[in-house]
Specification:
Rossmann fold, three-stranded parallel beta sheet, 42% helix
Length: 120
């Protein structure tokens, strides 16, 4: 189907409830990835590398779920259901990376009194 055929297709085109995209099709830069995740439907990444740092990047950019290479495809419906419900998938190694990032940001933003910039 070419673009012209798509434009003249009859009937309304429904917006997806969840978008599923293979990792190889995602932009490499964080700012471009954030632009992809801003769309209205939750985003699930398939074919994701089993790298906690990269998976943490996905979640930090707004990705709602991921299915890593080598994982059984039978896990994908659960990931999609979680994303559709507004949740996200994370395993303990990714959670550790996210918490480490949070703590590093917290240390940088904490003022000398130890309360941080939000409690003044």
């Amino acid at each position: 189907m070419n673009d012209e055929e798509f434009e003249v297709a009859e009937g309304p085109v429904a917006k997806p409830d969840v978008r599923i995209v293979h990792a190889s099709l995602l932009p490499r830069s964080h700012s471009h990835l954030r632009a992809v995740t801003r769309a209205s439907a939750p985003l699930v990444v398939t074919g994701a590398p089993d790298d906690p740092r990269l998976l943490a990047d996905y979640l930090a950019a707004g990705v709602n779920g991921y299915h890593c290479r080598g994982e059984p495809w039978s896990l994908l419906p659960e990931v999609v259901r979680d994303a559709h419900a507004g949740g996200y998938r994370s395993d303990p190694s990714v959670t550790r990376h996210l918490l480490a990032r949070y703590r590093a940001l917290q240390k940088r933003s904490t003022s000398s009194d130890g309360f941080g910039p939000y409690l003044h």
